[in-house]
């Protein structure tokens, strides 16, 4: 019998597998997809996320990020990170770096589709394999979360995300966020000649149709060559009742998601992975739900507050002007999210 089976080979699952193995646990990782996994992602690692990766011995190449810029028409608000640099990293590059570390650690990766688990008194069965614990890191629409009854109903307006890369030199060392009437566009420097463009919106449509809401950005990209296909994700909000059910624990997007508005999903996932490993090492899985709530509280409040304003047209157009008029407040919010 293994100590831990991790279901899902994205960054959160790979980070849990690495941490648990280095803590002396016998770990197996199950992933249904072959090769490098890509997904729609803003690809800007906050300083906190980069520090967490370096603590795992993972140092993916990319482009330094110095802060965040908000734009709306001619109004601009900027804030630099106070505690080190972030990094723009292609999702595939990050995936490969983490997977290489898992291979070097000698953790087996099995290609398996897992949609349900069966709990017994002191262990869990997964796809014919038993372990003391199962960690569900199977993404935004987690099959294990749904099968275990941990998903919660909600009545919020759905939002979706789209992402594409372009061969273009970054115009800034910041992640640039432009606000439109019902959407935001994120431009992240990935390398000296590549940028990632992600669009979050409450309206569904093609990437080009969504890009039309940002005429200045569309004009800038008109002469740039796309270097990746469009990838999408959503609906983004995925509430859960809790993150632990007996010996099953949720991490990453599977553990619940509000929105990608603040761009710190990876930082939260990596921090949660570390807390989860600590709880399993202490044989206290029940402590993980409170630990997750404590480490994510600041992020959840800021994200929920911004999303609340975004969903109210009379307030949404005031967010960027307020950030520009109150630069210290904006810088403090960015600092809280960047840690």
Description:
The chain is an alpha+beta fold. The chain has a domain at 2-64 and 88-155 and 237-311: FAD/NAD(P)-binding domain. It contains eleven helices and 19 strands. The chain has helices at 11-22, 47-55, 91-104, 143-147, 207-211, 215-221, 265-281, 288-310, 313-316, 319-325, 327-338, and strands spanning 2-7, 27-31, 44-45, 63-65, 67-72, 75-80, 86-88, 109-111, 118-119, 124-126, 129-136, 160-167, 174-179, 183-191, 194-201, 225-226, 231-233, 244-245, 248-250. Strands 1, 2, 8, 9, 10, 11, 18 and 19 form an eight-stranded mixed beta sheet that branches. Strands 5, 6, 12, 13, 14, 15, 16 and 17 form an eight-stranded mixed beta sheet that branches. A hairpin with a 2-residue loop joins β10 and β11 (129-136). It is globular, with a radius of gyration of 20 Å. The two termini are 38 Å apart.
Which SSEs are present, and which pair or pack?
Elements: E1 2-7, H1 11-22, E2 27-31, E3 44-45, H2 47-55, E4 63-65, E5 67-72, E6 75-80, E7 86-88, H3 91-104, E8 109-111, E9 118-119, E10 124-126, E11 129-136, H4 143-147, E12 160-167, E13 174-179, E14 183-191, E15 194-201, H5 207-211, H6 215-221, E16 225-226, E17 231-233, E18 244-245, E19 248-250, H7 265-281, H8 288-310, H9 313-316, H10 319-325, H11 327-338
Helix pairs in contact: 1-3, 1-7, 2-7, 7-8, 10-11
